[in-house]
Amino acid sequence: MTARLDDLEDDGCLWCGDEIGMTAPRSYLRRYCDMRCCKAHRDHMGKAERLEAKEKQDRRCAQCKAPLPASKRADAIYCSKACKRQVMMQRFRKRAPLTCLRCGAGFTCSTGSRLYCGDDCHTAAIRQQRKDRSVPLARLQRATCRWCSATFTPRRTPPLQVLCSPECDKAERKAKHEEQPERACPTCSTPFRPERPSDPRKYCSRSCAAQGRVLPREDRSCAICSTTFRPAFPSVRAITCSPSCASFLHYQRRRVAITCEAIS
């Protein structure tokens, strides 16, 4: 007697229990109704195996020596947050005292990497370091202003400060601006001076620049009714004055194309 596939027992999906339809491809070999059930079943089996392996291990809490539940991670050390907090407090009390580098007072910290006892000592130390790095005014030689030729004591080294005051700096900038050659605006023909020679500006203002970027629109003649019109944008390749003329032109082109196909 020959066995048939219809005689085999159909247990359905191994995860959700739904019946696997006979219309599915290779239904006689399938054990799940879709990939979601397959993945969920495999994840469940893997989790069950991991829990079983954890139950066989003799894992104890490092603080209270109580057995760790199987639901805890494999690298868990404590059974609860309370035990972990107790261990952290014990480590905090056993810390070695540190000495402040500013006032010499003793203090403790959780990491052991602090150098000062508080924000006041930290700020005072930073100010002292900046003061030590800066050059005293008495050591700086008196310099001559590049604009007004006055003698002054620079706040920084002379290569960095060559003007005695902000007024001289402003006057020098204004003189350099007046020395620049004038340019003519292409839009309004108004002469203007750029701030520096390498300035690529061609227009005197933003409004003139916006007007200069707009291309001129020229009058065109409609290909259907020969009416003179002006397109909305210069870059538009419009050859008709209205949608009706455009529709009629499209109809004529389509008619000529159909006639050519019929002749060929």
Description:
The structure is a single chain. By secondary structure, this protein is mainly alpha-helical. Among the domains are: 11-56; 60-91, no CATH class; 183-213, no CATH class; 217-247, no CATH class. Helices cover 35% and strands 6% of the residues. Strand 3 (143-144) and strand 4 form a beta hairpin. It is flat and about 100 Å long.
What's a concise summary of this model?
Helix content is 35%, strand content 6%.
What would the keywords be for this entry?
6 helices; 264 residues; disordered N terminus; two-stranded antiparallel ribbon; mainly alpha; single chain; flat
Nearest-angstrom radius of gyration?
Answer: 44 Å
Count of distinct strands: 8
Distance between the termini: 70 Å
Order of helices and strands: HHEEHEEHEEHEEH
Q: What overall geometry do the principal axes of the alpha carbons give?
A: flat
Helix- and strand-based class? mainly alpha
**Average predicted confidence as pLDDT:** 77
What does the largest sheet look like? 2 strands, antiparallel
Number of helices: 6
Q: Biggest sheet: strands side by side, in what order?
A: 1-2
**Low-confidence sequence ranges:** 1-9
Strand content: 5-15%
Percent of residues in helices comes to: 25-40%
